[in-house]
Request: fold
Amino acid sequence: MAIRVRFAPSPTGYLHVGGARTALFNWLLARKQRGVFILRIEDTDKERSSEAMTRAIVEGLRWLGLDWDEGPHHQADGIERHRADARQLLESGAAYRCFCTPEELAAKRAEAEARKERYGYDRRCLRELTPERSAARAAAGERCAIRFRVPEGVTEWNDLVHGPTRFVNAEIDDFIVLRSDGTPTYNLAVVSDDSWMRVTHVIRGDDHLSNTPKQILLYRTLGRPLPEFAHVPMILGPDGRRLSKRHGATSIADHEARGILPWAMVNFLALLGWSPGTDEEVMDVPELITKFSIDRVLKKSSVFDLKKLEWLNAQHMARADAQLLEPLVAPRLAARGLASAEELQARREWYLALIDLLKGRARDLEELAERVRPYVAGVIRYEEEAVGRHWRDGPQVALRLERLTELLADAPWEAAPLEDRLRAFAAELGIPAGKLIHPLRVALTGQAVSPGIFDVLVAMGRERALGRIRDAVCYLRDRFAAGASAPEP
Ligand code: GLU
Reply:
């Protein structure tokens, strides 16, 4: 039988790293085992759920490439089925009506707390009301909730991540399954939906561990087949506390905005709580599908390491085909006013070659777009740090650069002859080539780092490159004529 798994987010917030990781583990298992991945939006809490969040979650999953085979189902659409399940529990005597008001319950909770005791519902409505009396009060229109009567004993299961897990039922309160306003609680709705959707594996965060015995009790009482359960470890911030906003960007959309590649994000998320069992860390999606297994999901929580995400992203950028990166970087070039869609189209081959040249040095797409700037912008800004490091002797640099423009002007515009001319000039001056290359790099790009300088010259083209060097000469003359000196490095 094909496995059926689901991702069941509540649309009360954006798709965050933890949710996306849960979705990914479900998706990887479904794809690996040729099963079914279901998306279910758990929107029964009308007050906290919103359409905008549902859209954001759906967009986040789409961006990551986690496609679903069924859904999105909306939990709120199943409310009649949830109520029918609550009735079944009530009619079989497994649940009972509770007429206690929120005020009464709050008072009892406060008393228990004052006595420093664990609060649990005292079963007053079970003890004091006969089924007939309870039915009569409900028929008279009195508001009531429905509580599940937790049986004695222990509830155990073999968790696919945590192994044998057991809860003593005496420690589980008679929990509400249907609120007095007729809405189901999470535990009832989830069991009702998971059994109706024939979910075979429930994979979710281990913050739900204590809900599982309640759900197992409901499955058994309703006479539905139990799924397997796998509770995946929490994700922590670098300070060891549960990952939250205080640790910076936790929403998937934030990482998308800064230019993380979706498949790098998927690689990173996969390693949050799962180990492939080898040292290999950079993996593409098909590889992850092949290698993924629940057996290798770790029990202990994992730490969200932004540096690692950036490193993985840089690895994926360097490996990616320029054709794949181009549509992702295009909107960022347009936003900077560097290249419109038409310009990109008109000089596509040139742009693809440029992306190939630059992709190895960028941590994300924003950085990649920024690195395109010197190759297309009219004027550039010289980074102070680069100026301080390589243009300290301004007048001398200006002289050398000026001479270099003359030497390069009629060279065939290819890496090898350009290199020959520059090295010959360095030899003539009796200085190492680096003494020319570094100042030249600042002149061309404004920065102290770039791809190999001769590739930069070629990519920039003769006219733009020579113009850039002349601009630098003028800049240096102005700056040093004005008596200013380069800042200390
Ligand atoms: N809506 C629940 C949540 O977002 C789903 C938990 C589950 O997978 O059962 O935490």
Remarks:
- The first helix runs from residue 17 to 32.
- The mean pLDDT is 95.
- The domain at 4-74+186-236 is CATH 3.40.50.620 (Rossmann fold).
